[in-house]
Backbone:
């Protein structure tokens, strides 16, 4: 075995949570080693690929858009969504309260002080299940960072590199941790395998060939290694019965290195993993026509107007509308016996409402390109959306409904859909457009939500008949289940310290062992409970990474 490296704090994972933990510990004067199994070109992890949305409460951006938000309303929404119901939810509840205080308090100012800026229109993600005290955001809270995911990462990478130049932080890439070392019940470091160097571009699968061994002795170990979304076998194994059967086919929303290995390794060291059955996967996944990783999927960020049909052509029941209730829709669709569903829409809707998740799918926002951004308000869908419409295997475009249904039967399972059945659904919906009032719940929501300036400007098309040729052509999009996030994880107290599995009732911690980010269920082992409100994943990495880094430095 190679000679052991000795440091004050060892961070496992060079994603957003790990970077935040590392720079916070280094700011406190500690020497830090950051380990990652991927090569240097993957610095920043999953956050690099993200759209860069952050959950904020009572922000200046909200006020400028006419949104009145408060900590009390955000708390009502959060706990109505989380639906905490287990004894294991003690620490997740505490983390939820702390995170809400952060999101309504210093979070924006902290980021703003590091140069982070926000797009002026606040998005309204996860609009909910229709109950005031149930799941969903009562108001828009999705704040898009100017620069998307790379824009969130930038200040922490800049700080980390400054510490590296001062020999305070040392990055060791292609170092895969295989064991957390302990002595007398305390974490004392890690050991693992040196992997062969890899020139693979960011996101591509890298070799797992071991060419040596290593060990790091540390006063504190922070596990910030991410979740399980890139490991489809593990996703299926952990899939909860309440969401129906696990899908036979899925697309991957994250690269293969998001494999969940460190959760089992931490468990072997005595840490407790809770709420492993809580997960967050989307129903609006597209097969990427230009993939970066295997089975690469891209999520549609839908506005609320598309008509949502299951694989048999039946309209989803209210309030399972696009962008409303992610897991409610997933649960319903798993009961249909098929792994896909459909959006049916018009060119007018795709131009106003379709966006794609991911930094690489939004070059204007990621590149901070005002000229390119201005093209969004001109005719046509955004360039990346039009590219999917032209090249994507999941898109059907037609001038008549008969042609559209024929195409849907080619892209989906042959013969499942009939033109007559789909026409019946669309004509019934279109009949509700003729008056400014009616009983169709989706159209009622459309009209109400367009009273929000942000929706009216860039997110929600004026209600119109789907079968109106003036708004054509007709478009159908096959929607695949897309793996994404782990909502449970390593149980931690409010200092980010991992709790021991030896005596859960006593709540003993493992000295020297901390967790942050998705590995910790973004805090506590699951601070979002059963449902997320969106913008909370990057924010959870920021908050839990900051907490764990500062606490690890204080040991």
Residues:
């Amino acid at each position: 075995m190679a000679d052991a490296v000795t440091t004050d704090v060892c961070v496992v994972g060079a994603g957003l949570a790990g970077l935040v933990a590392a720079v916070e510990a280094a700011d406190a004067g500690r020497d830090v080693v950051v380990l990652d199994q991927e090569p240097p070109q993957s610095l920043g992890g999953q956050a690099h690929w993200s759209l860069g949305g952050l959950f904020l409460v009572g922000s200046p951006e909200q006020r400028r858009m006419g949104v009145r938000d408060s900590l009390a309303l955000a708390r009502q929404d959060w706990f109505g969504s989380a639906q905490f119901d287990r004894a294991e939810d003690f620490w997740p509840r505490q983390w939820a309260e702390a995170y809400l205080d952060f999101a309504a308090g210093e979070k924006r100012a902290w980021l703003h002080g590091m140069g982070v800026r926000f797009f002026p229109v606040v998005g309204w993600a996860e609009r909910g299940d229709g109950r005031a005290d149930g799941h969903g955001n009562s108001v828009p809270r999705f704040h898009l960072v100017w620069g998307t995911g790379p824009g969130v990462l930038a200040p922490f990478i800049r700080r980390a590199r400054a510490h590296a130049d001062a020999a305070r932080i040392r990055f060791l890439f292609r170092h895969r941790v295989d064991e957390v070392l302990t002595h007398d019940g305390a974490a004392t470091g890690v050991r693992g395998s040196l992997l062969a160097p890899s020139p693979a571009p960011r996101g591509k699968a890298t070799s797992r060939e071991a060419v040596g061994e290593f060990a790091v002795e540390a006063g504190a170990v922070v596990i910030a290694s991410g979740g399980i979304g890139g490991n489809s076998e593990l996703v299926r194994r952990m899939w909860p019965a309440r969401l129906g059967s696990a899908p036979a086919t899925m697309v991957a929303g994250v690269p293969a290195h998001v494999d969940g290995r460190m959760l089992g390794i931490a468990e072997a060291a005595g840490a407790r993993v809770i709420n492993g059955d809580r997960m967050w996967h989307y129903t609006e996944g597209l097969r990427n026509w230009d993939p970066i990783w295997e089975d690469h999927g891209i999520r549609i960020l839908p506005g609320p107007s598309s008509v949502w049909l299951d694989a048999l052509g039946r309209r989803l029941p209210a309030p399972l509308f696009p962008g409303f209730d992610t897991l409610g829709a997933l649960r319903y669709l798993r009961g249909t016996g098929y792994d896909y569903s459909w959006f049916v829409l018009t060119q007018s809707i795709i131009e106003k409402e379709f966006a794609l998740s991911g930094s690489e799918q939004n070059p204007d926002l990621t590149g901070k390109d005002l000229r390119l951004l201005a093209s969004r308000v001109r005719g046509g869908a955004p360039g990346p959306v039009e590219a999917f419409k032209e090249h994507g295997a999941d898109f059907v475009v037609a001038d008549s409904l008969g042609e559209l249904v024929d195409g849907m039967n080619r892209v989906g399972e042959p013969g499942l859909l009939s033109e007559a059945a789909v026409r019946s659904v669309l004509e019934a919906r279109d009949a509700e457009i003729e008056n400014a009032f009616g009983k169709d719940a989706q159209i009622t929501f459309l009209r109400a939500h367009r009273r929000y300036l942000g929706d009216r400007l860039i997110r929600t098309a004026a209600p119109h008949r789907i079968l109106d040729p003036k708004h054509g052509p007709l478009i159908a999009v096959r929607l695949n289940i897309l793996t994404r996030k782990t909502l449970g994880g390593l149980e931690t107290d409010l200092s980010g310290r991992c709790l021991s599995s030896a005596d859960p009732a006593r709540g003993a911690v493992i000295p020297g062992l901390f967790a942050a980010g998705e590995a910790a269920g973004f805090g506590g082992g699951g601070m979002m409970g059963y449902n997320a409100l969106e913008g909370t994943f990057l924010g959870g990495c920021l908050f839990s990474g900051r907490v764990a880094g500062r606490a690890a430095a204080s040991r």
